[in-house]
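G., the chain you wanted modeled:
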Amino acid sequence: QVQLVESGGGLVQAGGSLRLSCAASGRSFSAYVLGWFRQAPGKEREFVGDTTWSGSGTAYAVAAKGRFTISRDNAKNTVYLQMNSLKPEDTAVYSCAARSAWSGTWMYWGQGTQVTVSS
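Predicted structure as tokens:
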């Protein structure tokens, strides 16, 4: 059974940093893309960024470029989202997801972790 478990959320002041983790289990993710999404209250879920498990490519949404960095530890089957210079508008539930490298459909989702940025 595939599981994606996020951790690392919390309350931080504007300008601060947080690192989220997404621990993946249940299958080999070598041919998968791991992504981060967020959903703020009253808004639709939005893409933050993703990375191939092989490390061949990482992509970011415009709002994340320059402040957020996605990395992974293949030995731990974990993907990270380092968030710096956080703003109140970054407040959201952050979720990780996984899809096959050959599919545009995000098949697996974590339960999400709350990030709250105070002004």
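DSSP finds no helices and eleven strands in the chain.

Shout if anything looks off.
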